[in-house]
Each structure stands twice: as structure tokens, then as C-alpha cells.
Amino acid sequence: MARPCMLEIKNLTKVYGSGKDQMLAVDNISLTVERGSFFGLLGPNGAGKSTTIHCITGIAQPTCGQILVDGVDVVEDYKSARTKVGLSPQEFNVNIFNTPEQLMDYTGGYYGLRKEERKERIDKLIERFDLEKHRKVLFQKLSGGLKRRTMLGRALVHQPDLLILDEPTAGVDVEQRRDLWEYLKELNAQGKTIILTSHYLEEVEYLCNEIAIINHGRIVAEGTKEEFLRGGKSIEERYLEITRKEKVNTNELV
Questions:
Q1: More exposed terminus of the chain, fewer Cβ within 10 Å: N or C?
Q2: Are 9 and 195 in contact (CB under 8 A)?
Q3: pLDDT tens by residue, the chain, 254 residues
């Protein structure tokens, strides 16, 4: 029996620009992520992953199609849908002159958490991500790994139902990456729905139970991790097999 949907994307298309300058970033994709899934969204650079995430989170407006987060339309009821989502983006889209504590506090306030509740949440996240010594250090002075942990804490401060992680361990050393993996597995085991994009395919293989590959703005493969691993191949081998085949097919059409 299928679990209820946390995310449903129906015929999403996103076009940037107009006239001769139009660029088709996402081409009529449909995708379902069940509640409690750990979902890997893979694809080469420029494949449409970030655009899809931007449409889910309201950073970009869909050209056509519909996106529902826990049944809430992200365009028609943006505020309600956005409270259900936590995003840890690939880029550090923060004020670099704020501290980790301030960044989490501002985000908690944005989502309506009261001061006492924000403090309790921030203290727990800072402790969990080993940021106590750095809680009052300016973001610009943090190492890459500490910045990533701060971004993840900021994404979690309002306790979202859906957590979207765009390259969350880029620039993080091996030990810290493994620690983050275990924390993400804990969150998922507690029922948190997580969408992960990553170029570390061993990370996807270790964490995710559902996987989709997007290329040239289209979903070109989708299934369970077990389905991708059939025949004794790794996720990386299957990924390369699928994307290389897509590249050949695209070149044949040109």
C-alpha cells in the first residue's frame, strides 16, 4: 500500500526568457515523493535539478504544471506550502556577516516561531552539529564544513515536513560527511521526508531508497534503489550508463 504523497509534481515545465532567448529548463516532468521517503534526485550540471527545486520552494514560478507539497499548491497557497519545506541550498545564500546563531534565529522568526521556541530549537541544532564554539563567529570566517552544517541547521529550525538538500556535503571532509549521513538517516527514520541532490553517488547509494535521474530537463529514469542496483551494478555505474545513453540519443537528434 502506497504511503501518502509529501510531494507531487504534475507536468511541470519551466521556461526562462522569451522569444529567441527562451531556454527550456524543465520539460513536462511528473514526479511523486511519498511521505517518509529518502529521495535522490540526480543529474548532470544544467539538467534541471536546481530549477525543479526552485519551483518547489517558490524561488521560481512554474511556466505550467502543478506542484503540491503535502497537498498544498505551491503557487496558489505559497505561504502555507513554504512552511512545510526546509531548503539547504548549494549556494550560500546568506548574509556572511551574520553568525550561525543569528541565521537560524532569523529563519525561525520568519516562520513565526516564538523567541523561547527558537532558542530551544537553535540550542539543540547547534549542539547536534557541533557548532557551539562557532555559534557567534561570522559566517564568512567559518570553514566549508561549518558553513554546510550551519545551512542545514537553518533549514531545520522550523521543523519542516519536507527537507530538500542540494549538495549538502560539498566541501565537507570525510569524517564530517559521515556524521551528517548518520544524522540524516536518523531524521528519515523519525519520519522526515528528504530529497537529496548530490554528485557524490556513494552518498546517494548509502542514504536514498528512491531515485530519479533528470537530464535535459526530463526524467529519464526512476525507481527504487534496489531496481537501480539490479545486476550487481552500483548507482554510479547505472547513472553513467543512463546519462551516456541519453547523450548519445540527444546527439543523434541534432
A1: N
A2: no
A3: 456 899 999 999 999 998 888 999 999 999 999 999 999 999 999 999 999 999 999 999 999 999 999 999 999 999 999 999 999 998 899 999 999 999 999 999 999 999 999 999 999 999 999 999 999 999 999 998 899 999 999 999 999 999 999 999 887 888 888 989 999 999 999 999 999 999 999 999 999 999 999 999 999 999 999 999 999 999 999 999 999 876 655 443 32
Q: Please state whether beta strands 72-73 and 85-88 pair in parallel, antiparallel, or not at all (unpaired).
A: unpaired
| Residue that the C-alpha cell 507531487 belongs to | 8
The pTM is what? Answer: 0.92
Cβ–Cβ < 8 Å for 214, 48: yes
What range does the domain containing 26 cover? 1-84+200-254
DSSP 137-149: S-GGGS-HHHHHH
For helices 100-110 and 115-128, what crossing angle results, to 10°?
140
CATH code, domain with 27: 3.40.50.300
Cell of 211: 531515485
